[in-house]
Amino acid sequence: MELDVKAVSGINTPLYLRVTDLRPNERVRVSVSTVDSHRQPWSTDQAFRANELGVVDLATSLPESAQWEPAHSLGILWSMRPDSAGLGEDDVSAFDLNGLSPIHLNVRVRIKGEGLGSLLQRTIARNAHQFDGPCGPAFHTKRGPGVILLIDAPASTNSASAAALAHHGFATMYATSTPSAAELERFHRSEFVDATVPLALVAHGRACTKAFELAAAHPELIGPVVAHSPSDVAFPNPSRQEFRRTKLTGKPADLAGFHAAHRAQATPIDVAGMTGPLLVTAGTEDAVWDGVGMAGALAEKAEAMGVETFLVAYSGAGHMCGYPFAFPGLPTATVMRDHGHRIRVGGSIDANGRAAQISRQQVISFLASSYDMPVTTL
């Protein structure tokens, strides 16, 4: 048996791992373990069968568990779960990253009577450099269009989201608060931001409301907008009552009913004044609210205002799969943490991972085309 791996690779690129010199149909166990930025251990152990050539290749081999299908090199990473006794799927939230810190994967492959191992490094953005943004950490690889990331509930990817997007030539700030007009102007005039083109906003969930407000109020500063899993109305915040059952049952909160009940009375989001273009995405199995329905309503409203609009629905995916807040090269989850509460976001291990990969390609292509830049998704 021989193990062939790529020792260093980007966190969202394919995971190259092949086991060769096996007997046809021989059973091989592949285990992967790592530790996130909060020092939480994660791992997975999957069984595969060698093909007729005696090879197991993560890019083409299916696991016996059938946790992902068709085959995908990143599937084994999507299946990783925290190493904590008693944790069920409803207890698993997201894998935590921070800044430019890479993750290290311990890989072990085993057949009867033999085992091999290797240590792999998955980097965020090796050429990115951090600088101080006016309302959060920012990253750049060169002087380029400015992008601001907005999210209501802190993403597990944290500032690594900005670093990953900076890898593709965008000066990206992870906003820890909603930027004021003065902060938008300061970022636009930053040393590493191209002030000859407008800023772009990439937002998720409730923060999309803030993104639309900023884009409409400051069309001279803000052009492209990406809205992942947006609502078409400004919902009130759920009360403590909505989370009481979570404490009693230990299950994550299901907020779909709350949002359905409040949608008719909530104030519609106004997109008048924004210049665009606009990319709107949603998962068909969003468990937080009617993601596809509201994304479609927003897209129709923007198109009626003359904004060039692109609408994408991710089949089988949940609420939290939009890049760069979700990484295709990390474990996927159907639960997220929001200000101390666990919330069901929907989807599946497989669908959420594939959606994150597609979203990465689409977001990078959308932003690059908005600025007439070459598309680089590696």
Automatic annotation (TrEMBL):
One of its GO terms (biological process) is acyl-CoA metabolic process. One of its GO terms (molecular function) is fatty acyl-CoA hydrolase activity. This is Uncharacterized protein. Residues 263-368 form the BAAT/Acyl-CoA thioester hydrolase C-terminal domain. PANTHER family: ACYL-COA THIOESTERASE 17-RELATED, ACYL-COENZYME A THIOESTERASE-RELATED. Gene3D superfamilies: Acyl-CoA thioester hydrolase/BAAT N-terminal domain, alpha/beta hydrolase. Residues 13-110 form the Acyl-CoA thioester hydrolase/bile acid-CoA amino acid N-acetyltransferase domain. Pfam families: BAAT_C, Bile_Hydr_Trans.
